[in-house]
Amino acid sequence: MSDRPEPPEGNAIEAYWDDVRVAPHRASPRPLDFRDRVQPGDFAIGTSADRILVIIKPDGTLEYGPEYRPDEAATVFWEYMGQRRLQMEDRLLVIGHMEAILTRLGDLDLRAEAARRTAMAEPENMELERQAIEAVRRVERAVSQAIELGRGLIRRPEVPMPAWPAEVPRSIRNVEHSDYEGPAGMDEDPEGG
Predict the structure, then answer these.
(1) CA–CA gap between residue 63 and residue 61 (Å, rounded)
(2) pTM for the whole thing?
(3) pLDDT in tens, 85-97
(4) Between β-strands 43-46 and 62-64, what pairing exists: parallel, antiparallel or unpaired?
(5) CA distance to 1, 68, 189, per residue, from 45 (Å)
(6) Rounded CA gap, 164 and 128, in Å?
């Protein structure tokens, strides 16, 4: 059964022919784009072809897309979660390396500072001077490794320069003998160059 109304009585064929002849020139109604239903805070499961399969609302309700198939939605979701897990594992490994190199750098710097003070207290003791010089070299090697880690981080493909966190962590801010200021302590070129 057609959605088309019955042609009027009388000149039925001519009226019908006019309707058929003009039909290709009419704009077809735009189909509802399911992507329009995604709001901030929603979690959308979709395909690489921009087909939205399911929208999970913040209150837990589900909206199914016109082409929703449970198996496809589950596959897309778990593949995404697997990728995110790998990304998070890599990020945790990077953070572990950053924390390790920075804590060792801080420790070596404190030891070098103590060795320099001891050597300055006894300027005639060449062994203390040698130990202070070696302590400074250890700091320089650690700084070099921190720089190499930073170079590796900045050269990662498709990873933008991270923004500074809004505040200095309490665990560092409340520690004696740390003058860490976060971005305020850096003399950065605003252009990033």
Answers:
(1) 7
(2) 0.57
(3) 988 898 899 889 9
(4) unpaired
(5) 36, 10, 40
(6) 40
